Amino acid sequence: MSGEQANTQVLRVDGREIVVTSADKVLWPQDGLTKADLLDYYQAVAPVMLPYLRDHPVTLRVFPGGIDRPGHYRRDLPKDAPDWLPSATYRPASREGELHAPLIQDAAALLWYAERGALEFHMWLATADRQEQPDWAVFDLDPGDAVDFPAVLEAALLVRDALAAQGIDGYPKTSGGRGLHVFVPLEPIHDFASVRDWVRGIAAQLAEAHPDQIAVAARGTHEGERVTIDHAQNSVARNTAAPYTARGHPGAPVSAPVTWDEVADGAIRPDQFTLRTMPERIQQLGDLWASARNAPQRLPG
Q: Does the reported pTM lie above 0.90?
């Protein structure tokens, strides 16, 4: 959006009209960033973000009053959603009945949810039509409270090398918090149990070889002085912060794809990728994961 921020505006995106109310509502008080800034950001990054979201059900993290007020997760389509917003039907293991998970197929859907206070978009690792066969695996590197970010970078390099030893390519990104994610593009031919066991096996090998650095997720992942590799994300209907999603933390960080050279150089900080800085980085570097989307892999063995 540009120009004067009126109380109500209309965005025209993909042939749809998105009614924007309270565009000047402050969502990140410490940073002075508003709903208009959030919408500007998602308009800017939609071309590189949508390929990851498309066809993958999402969970939204909604902060209608800004990040200084409690947010909540939304896993089902809002009752007042317009007819043109698609969803994916699934049966959650924790309750009876069906839910209709949002699908983000285009920029109009992305902006409709953002206008409603969805700051964060967390994607399933499988598509709506193959919910039990993931097309991504994730190594979720979660630092203990006493762990600094350089130690997380070192742990990510250990994951990279373990994958390379199996002939597998991984792709790193910041989580938008204190951690890193290493994503692995997969052919959707393996079930989640196989993928989860594979991730846990690599994590266990690294924990055994580097017991002072690496732990395998058991209960609390923020405890201690090690980096925990959480394999449980590799499950049906579990979700992980999507590439380029904003996060509801002070500083307005985003989940940013990075290169292995940046990881190895130790030249990155989680707070350098933000709502303000990420669009320019994309202009300069493009989508660093573009090749991953066209290079699905099979688990070894």
A: yes
Q: Count CA atoms within 13 Å of residue 221 on its CB side.
A: 15
H helix intervals, the chain: 35-53, 107-115, 149-165, 192-209, 260-265, 278-285, 290-293
pLDDT per residue over 217-265, tens digit each?
875 555 578 999 999 999 999 999 999 999 999 999 999 999 999 999 9
Query: Which tokens belong to 48?
Result: 């590189």
Contact in structure between 196 and 116 (CB atoms under 8 Å): no
**C-alpha 278, offset from chain centre:** 15
Alpha-carbon distances, residue 22 vs 100, 114, 120, 245, 276 (angstroms): 28, 13, 19, 22, 20
Q: Is 110 helix (H, G, I), strand (E, B) or coil?
A: helix
Q: Alpha helix (H) ranges present in 210-269?
A: 260-265
Please give the structure tokens belonging to residue 269.
Answer: 């900080």
Does residue 80 sit in helix, strand or coil?
coil
